Amino acid sequence: MTISFSRRQILSAGAATGALGFLPPATSFAAPARHLRAVKRAIEVNGKAASMYAIEGDDGLDGARLAPGERFAFSLQNSCGTPTIIHWHGQTPPVAQDGVTATGYEQPIASGAAAAYDYAPRPGTHWMHSHFGLQEQQLMAAPLIVHTAEDLRADTQEVTLLLHDFTFKDPAEILSSLTTASAPGGMGMMGGMSMGNGPDLNDVDFDAYLANGRTLDDPQIVQVERGGQMRLRLINGATATAFWIDTGGVPTKLLAVDGDAVQPLDISAPMPVAQGQRLDLLLALPAGEGAYPVLAQREGDVARTGLILATPAAKILKLSLQADRPAGACGVSLEAYLQAQAPLGNRPIDRVHRVVLAGSMAAYDWTINGKTWKNHDPLLVKQGERVALDIFNHSMMAHPMHLHGHHFQVLAINGHPLSGAMRDTVLVPPMALMRIAFDANNPGRWLFHCHNLYHMAAGMMTELRYV
Ligand SMILES: [Cu+2]
Predict the structure, then answer these.
(1) How far is the CA of 346 from the centre of ligand 1 (A)?
(2) 282 alpha carbon to ligand 1 midpoint, in Å?
C-alpha cells in the first residue's frame, strides 16, 4: 500500500487518461476508462492471519489517483464475495452516484456485478469506503487523490498515509456488545475510558492500529531525499479512533483539511484528526541523513502507529508501539486556527437548522434531534439557499459529523465566530456548539451522520433533503 510517487508518475498517469478530456460527457455509463475492484485479501497483523477487504486500483495501488482535470470515470467491480457499495468520501457527485443505499438512489452491488461512475471530481485528498453494513471495519477503504495542475508544478514528493483501527473480531459482535454493554458479559466497554467529569473516549478495544496496513512493529519505510520537501496526504480511515499526528519536530506546514486548502499554518505540536478527516502536510526535511517517524497516537491512550521517512543511508531504530504517556482528547484546538483559502463568501444565511447530538456510551443510544436513522427527521433545505447547521453535542463523547455531497465552512466554535476551514467532516466535542454553513447546490437526499461507525450503526444518522 505504499503510495509514494514522482512527478513523472503523475504525468504518465495523466497521459494515459488524457484522451478522456476530449470525450463528450458520458450520457451512458458504457465503458468507463478506469477500474476499481472490491476484493477480499489475506493480511497478517501481529503475526496472525486475517481475511479483510480491500479496494484495488488499476495502477497497482489501492484506491485511485486522478490526474488534473480527469473525470472520475470508473467501473467498480465487486469481487469481494458479498454485496457492497462504496462511498466517495469528500466528493460532490450527483446524488445517484454517492455510493450509498440508505437514501434509495442506488442498490447494493451484488457479488460478481459492477457499477459505473462518471462525474467531475473535487480536487484534493479524499477517500473511498464501504457504506454497507460494517465492512469499513474490515478495511474496505482506500485513498482517492485528485491532483491539481499546481500539484504537478510543485514537483514535490508525495506520500499518502491511510490510518485504520484493526480488530480480529467480527464487527457485528462488537456492535452487539456495545449496544448490550450494560448486560452481564458485555465486552464492548473494555476499552472505554470514563474519566469522571471528562469526556468518554474510545468505545471499542482494538487489536492494532494500522498505517498503510502496517503496525509500528514493521512500519512502512518511505525513502526521502536529504533536505527534500514532502507532501503527506493523511487520511483517518479508522472507524472509531481519533488520532494525534506528530511529525516529530520536522518543520511542518498544514496546507489543507478534508481536501480543502487552508491558509498555510506552521505546525509545531501534534495535530488532531478525527474519523473521516484528512490533513495535507508539507514537511521540510533536514539536510542531513536521518529517519523521521510520522506517528499517529490514539486519543486517550498510549497506542500508536505510523510510518518512517528515511534518507537512503539513515539508520532506522525500532519504535515502541506505545508512547510514554496517554494522549489527551482530540478537540477543536487546531480548528480555531484554521482559515479557509476559498471561504463561502459573504451572504446572508437563509435557513438555520439546530442539530442536537445525544446519547451515552453506556446506553449506546446515539441520536440526532432525539431520533435514530429509523425514524429520523430530515433536515429540509431548498436549492439555492445558504444553510447553517448549529450542531450542539449534548453528550460526553465527541462526534465527527460528516455531510455527504457538500463541503461546508466552520463559522463558529462555541459561539465565537470565525472564517474557518471548508470541510466535509467536523468534530463536535462533548457539550460543544459548532456552526457550519454550506450552499445548497447539489439537489437530492444526502446522508448526514457521525463517522464513528458504531455510532452511525446505532442510529446517529439523518439526511439533508432538498424540497
Ligand atoms: Cu458519534
Answers:
(1) 31
(2) 30
Residue 133 Cα to ligand 1 midpoint, Å, equals: 16
Q: Model's pTM, two decimal places?
A: 0.91
Residue type, position 92, single letter? T
Distance 451 CA to ligand 1 centre (A): 6
Question: In a 3-state reduction of DSSP, which class is residue 94?
Answer: coil
Q: What's the 436 CA to ligand 1 centre distance in angstroms?
A: 17
**Amino acid occupying residue 258:** D
Taking a 5 Å cut-off on Cβ, the residues next to ion ligand 1 are 399, 450, 452, 455
Per-residue pLDDT tens digits of the chain, which is 467 residues long: 333 333 333 333 333 333 333 333 334 455 788 999 999 999 999 999 999 999 999 999 999 999 999 999 999 999 999 999 999 999 999 999 999 999 999 999 999 999 999 999 999 999 999 999 999 999 999 999 999 999 999 989 999 999 999 999 999 999 999 988 654 333 444 444 444 567 888 889 999 999 999 999 999 999 999 999 999 999 999 999 999 999 999 999 999 999 999 999 999 999 999 999 999 999 999 999 999 999 999 999 999 999 999 999 999 989 999 999 999 999 999 999 999 999 999 999 999 999 999 999 888 999 999 999 999 999 999 999 999 999 999 999 999 999 999 999 999 999 999 999 999 999 999 999 999 999 999 999 999 999 999 999 999 999 999 99
How far away, in angstroms, is 460 Cα from ligand 1 center?
Answer: 7
Q: How far is the CA of 275 from the centre of ligand 1 (A)?
A: 10
Spatial contact of 367 and 360, defined as CB atoms under 8 Å apart: no
Three-point CA angle 194, 236, 417, nearest 5°: 75
Separation of CA 457 and ligand 1 centre (Å): 10
The amino acid occupying position 244 is W
Q: What domains lie within the chain, and their CATH numbers?
A: 4-149 (2.60.40.420), 163-167+206-330 (2.60.40.420), 351-466 (2.60.40.420)
User: Exposure string (b/e) for 236-270, b if CB count within 10 Å is 16 or more?
Assistant: bbbbbbbbbbbbeebebbbbbbbbbbbeeeebeeb
